[in-house]
């Protein structure tokens, strides 16, 4: 056998901020296949809901490059640690403490983010997003860059930008309407109301969801928080997949307290998909996905640089208020700014300066932010 060349960007790179694993693939009889494997790339910041730091973004870029040139890899499964969150986007602690009010620094960060999304879109292997919890904000964006999505039915999908001082221009405005159409996309992108896995399946955002809520006797049941029976409400709207409200929500809370989350069915669903991918011609599969991805890449490559520049400048205005509100806020005073007051002050012609930011921050965030700044100046 010839000695094969190593085509990695950084040969032998050690991943410190994510997990990179080669895992078995199974044939249709359920037996491990020798000489082939799947690559698991997992965000590993469970305490902060698997939000990605600058260092983690660098690792993800190199991980997808390594997986892409892995001759024995059948597919890449992109996921995260734990059972609460796939990813909630950028790390708000880093945003609030470092990037806020530093637009040029954020510009460089967004260059890395752009490269991460592009690395997913250009991967030579099929990419499966295994959604093990919330897929929100930038997490939704990197998830939509993947080819397939399999989720636990406890997952939540959505954006947070206009509620927390940003715009979903890291891929969501490019990709979401391709999945669900413009009207549903506008609803998600602007209102930032998360969808259940059931609704996401109905709208075409994901390929499959698996029941992961388990009763004490080991039976898997649908997410108790979600309306799982299809019916039409008094407005003529399809309600299947929406979150329960009113008394039904109170009942759901009681039911959820008796359940545990077990991701085994999610893992089994991912394994089935990878097995199906293995039984296809690799070059034909790659070319098919390359052709399909062009629709995403078309919007992405046209918008990525201008979006990057706008997002960096926004770090000196609305993001400088939104990110500290979320990061330093608390349950008592909230994690959102006073939107009415902000709009009123801007209409009066007030400058977007530190005084305005302090005025619109929730009380808890204002106090915690001031304390953090005082500590950093010592």
Q: Would you write up a description of this structure?
A:
The protein has 378 residues and is α/β, with parallel strands linked by helices. It folds into two domains: 261 residues, Alpha-Beta Complex (2-enoyl-CoA Hydratase, Chain A, domain 1); 48 residues, no CATH class. The chain has 15 helices and 13 strands. The strands form three sheets. A six-stranded mixed sheet has the order 1-2-3-5-7-10, with helices on both faces. A four-stranded mixed sheet has the order 4-6-8-9. A hairpin with a 5-residue loop joins strand 11 and strand 12. Helix 3 packs antiparallel against helix 11. The longest helix has 33 residues. The chain is globular. The protein starts with 17 loop residues before the first strand and ends with a helix. The mean pLDDT is 95.
Structure described in brief:
With 378 residues, the chain is of the alpha/beta class.
Topology:
Blueprint: E1 18-23, E2 37-43, H1 54-68, E3 73-80, E4 85-87, H2 92-99, H3 103-121, E5 127-131, E6 134-136, H4 138-144, E7 148-152, E8 156-158, H5 161-164, H6 172-180, H7 182-191, E9 195-196, H8 197-203, E10 208-210, E11 213-214, E12 220-221, H9 246-257, E13 260-261, H10 264-278, H11 282-314, H12 318-328, H13 339-347, H14 354-360, H15 363-376
Parallel strand pairs: 2-3, 3-5, 4-6, 5-7, 6-8, 7-10
Antiparallel strand pairs: 1-2, 8-9, 11-12, 11-13
Helix content: 40-55%
N→C terminal distance: 62 Å
- As laid out across the biggest beta sheet, the strand order is 1-2-3-5-7-10
Whole-number count of domains = 2
Query: Which CATH top level class of the largest domain fits?
Result: Alpha Beta
Radius of gyration equals: 22 Å
Strand content: 5-15%
> Under CATH, the topology of the largest domain is which?
2-enoyl-CoA Hydratase, Chain A, domain 1
The CATH architecture of the largest domain would be Alpha-Beta Complex
Overall pLDDT metric: 95
Low-confidence stretches: none
Largest sheet: 6 strands, mixed
Structural class: alpha/beta
Number of strands: 13
Could you state the CATH homologous superfamily of the largest domain?
A: 2-enoyl-CoA Hydratase, Chain A, domain 1
Q: Given the C-alpha coordinates, what overall shape results? A: globular
Count of runs of 4 or more consecutive helical residues: 15
Question: What string, H for helix and E for strand, traces the elements in order?
Answer: EEHEEHHEEHEEHHHEHEEEHEHHHHHH
């Amino acid at each position: 056998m010839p000695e094969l060349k190593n085509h990695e960007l950084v040969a032998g790179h050690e991943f410190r901020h994510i997990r990179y694993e080669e895992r078995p693939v199974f044939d249709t009889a359920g037996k491990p296949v020798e000489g082939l494997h799947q690559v698991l790339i997992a965000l590993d910041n469970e305490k902060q809901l698997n939000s990605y730091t600058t260092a983690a973004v660098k690792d993800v870029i190199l991980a997808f490059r390594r997986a892409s040139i892995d001759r024995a890899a059948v597919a890449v499964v992109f996921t995260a640690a734990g059972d609460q969150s796939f990813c909630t986007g950028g790390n708000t602690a880093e945003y609030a403490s470092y990037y806020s009010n530093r637009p040029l620094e954020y510009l460089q960060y967004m260059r890395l983010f752009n490269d991460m999304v592009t690395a997913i879109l250009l991967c030579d292997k099929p990419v499966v997003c295994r959604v093990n919890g919330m897929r929100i904000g930038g997490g939704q964006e990197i998830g939509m860059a993947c080819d397939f999505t399999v989720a636990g039915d406890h997952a939540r999908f959505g954006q947070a930008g206009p509620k927390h001082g940003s715009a979903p221009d890291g891929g969501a405005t490019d990709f979401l309407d391709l999945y669900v159409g413009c009207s549903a996309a506008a609803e998600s992108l602007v209102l930032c109301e998360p969808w259940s896995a059931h609704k996401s399946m109905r709208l075409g955002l994901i390929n499959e969801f698996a029941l992961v809520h388990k009763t004490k006797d080991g039976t898997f049941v649908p997410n108790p928080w979600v309306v799982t029976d299809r019916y039409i409400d008094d407005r003529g709207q399809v309600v299947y997949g929406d979150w329960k409200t009113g008394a039904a929500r109170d009942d759901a809370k009681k039911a959820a307290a008796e359940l545990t989350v077990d991701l085994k069915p999610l893992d089994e669903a991912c394994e089935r998909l990878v097995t199906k991918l293995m039984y296809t011609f690799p070059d034909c599969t790659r070319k098919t996905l390359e052709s399909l991805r062009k629709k995403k890449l078309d919007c992405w490559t046209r918008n990525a640089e201008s979006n990057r520049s706008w997002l960096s400048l926004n770090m000196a205005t609305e993001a400088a208020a939104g990110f500290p509100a979320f990061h330093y806020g608390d349950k008592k005073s909230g994690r959102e700014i006073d939107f009415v007051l902000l709009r009123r002050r801007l209409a009066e012609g007030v400058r977007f300066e530190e005084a305005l930011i302090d005025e619109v921050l929730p009380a808890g965030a204002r106090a915690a932010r001031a304390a953090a700044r005082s500590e950093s100046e010592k």
